[in-house]
């Protein structure tokens, strides 16, 4: 009997450290959740409770590359400005490690445009776990492209020539009253200071787009059409590479262009032109059309039909060189992030799949537009607008975009 009791006591004693560890973990988790849920739901009481008053927050400022050491009180004071507001984010605890009165926690905060990874050091002080220091890293899902030279809060419509050494884009000056094309070249891996393109400056010029072979660049302009003296709606123009450099801009003609606004043209490898237009005969406010090129001559444009176009707005088509897929501003009936989203449709023998939203890694509550491909289709460049006066718009980048394309291809749906 005595032996049996001794065995039971030993077993119970052995369980105590495990039970204690589980209790400590639950207490650490409670502190961490005060931080996570307090931030998500705008509960500043819980957020403050997670930290020791003397806690610090250390990080590298990505805009300057400088080390920052900030009292947690500064962070909490800023958080009070969002009190009662629910944040659009998801959170999770990745790991917790406890030794005695010290613990570490790794957390993930996933927002529409970025992800934070936080590392916490915690101590058990007067019987309660508190965060005494925080370090973190922020990863933008679609970071600004060339923020030091190109993305200066008033640009969109970046196109990069094959080879990656020349680029054109639109300078908007924070509005739509003045729109010019700018160009830059890459030297030693860095884009140089952009300058206004020689073909631009008098009229509104937008939406440059290189052909896959780099020998043609289409763009849109309000400059007078041939035979007219006054500027008008946007028409599609082009410049062509010659033995003596680039040609003068030339109008693509009345077969392609209409008396309405024709804009954001992209070119397939076979010369077929895809573009946006408000012309009559469409299905909605703005539709996507295409003009096949035969023997160097553009044919009568054809509407892409009601799988791509709706009664609303579809535009800014970026066609793959082989016309295998198209990225554009449109609507996925199953997924909508806000002001304007980028979607993809796949082409199967002339039939287009239903549009699929490119998802939260690309689209936000702001407006995404002006998509272009570079690096052989492995990289997506696109614009994003924050509404206001002035407009704030920049070029963003998604690398390994070809992987996203193949994932979406596997779930493409074609109407019978």
From TrEMBL:
Leader peptide range in chain numbering: 1-20
Pfam family of the protein (one): PD40
Superkingdom as given in the UniProt entry: Bacteria
Keywords: Signal
Matching Gene3D superfamilies: 3.10.450.50, TolB, C-terminal domain (2.120.10.30)
Official protein name in the record: Nuclear transport factor 2 family protein
Protein's organism: Fibrisoma montanum
């Amino acid at each position: 009997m005595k032996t049996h009791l001794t065995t039971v006591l030993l077993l119970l004693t052995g369980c105590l450290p495990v039970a204690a560890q589980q209790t400590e973990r639950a207490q650490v988790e409670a502190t961490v959740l005060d931080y996570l849920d307090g931030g998500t739901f705008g509960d500043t009481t819980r957020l403050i409770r997670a930290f020791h008053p003397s806690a610090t927050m250390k990080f590298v400022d990505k805009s300057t590359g400088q080390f920052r050491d900030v009292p947690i009180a500064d962070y909490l004071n800023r958080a009070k400005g969002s009190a009662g507001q629910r944040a659009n984010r998801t959170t999770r605890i990745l790991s917790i490690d406890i030794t005695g009165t010290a613990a570490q926690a790794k957390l993930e905060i996933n927002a529409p445009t970025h992800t934070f990874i936080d590392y916490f050091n915690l101590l058990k002080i007067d019987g309660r776990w508190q965060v005494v220091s925080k370090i973190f890293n922020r990863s933008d899902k679609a970071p600004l492209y060339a923020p030091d030279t190109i993305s200066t809060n008033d640009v969109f419509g970046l196109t990069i020539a094959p080879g990656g050494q020349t680029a054109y884009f639109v300078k908007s000056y924070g509005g739509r009253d003045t729109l010019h094309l700018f160009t830059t070249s890459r030297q030693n891996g860095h884009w140089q200071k952009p300058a206004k393109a020689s073909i631009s400056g008098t009229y509104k010029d937008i939406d440059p787009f290189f052909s896959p072979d780099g020998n043609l660049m289409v763009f849109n302009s309000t400059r007078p059409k041939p035979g007219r003296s006054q500027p008008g709606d946007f028409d599609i123009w082009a410049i062509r590479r010659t033995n003596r450099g680039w040609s003068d801009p030339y109008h693509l003609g009345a077969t392609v262009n209409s008396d309405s606004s024709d804009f954001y043209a992209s070119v397939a490898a076979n010369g077929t032109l895809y573009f946006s237009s408000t012309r009559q005969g469409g299905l909605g406010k703005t539709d996507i059309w295409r003009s096949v090129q035969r023997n160097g001559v553009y044919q009568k444009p054809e509407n892409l039909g009601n799988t791509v176009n709706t009664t609303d707005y579809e535009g800014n088509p970026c066609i793959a060189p082989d016309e295998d897929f198209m990225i554009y501003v449109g609507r996925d009936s199953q997924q909508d992030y806000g002001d304007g989203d980028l979607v993809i449709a796949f082409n199967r023998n002339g039939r287009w799949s239903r549009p699929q939203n490119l998802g939260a890694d690309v689209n936000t509550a702001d407006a995404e537009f002006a998509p272009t491909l570079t690096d052989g289709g492995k990289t997506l460049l696109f614009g994003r607008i924050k509404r206001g006066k002035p407009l704030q718009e920049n070029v963003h980048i998604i690398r390994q975009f070809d992987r996203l394309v193949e994932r979406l291809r596997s779930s493409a749906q074609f109407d019978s």
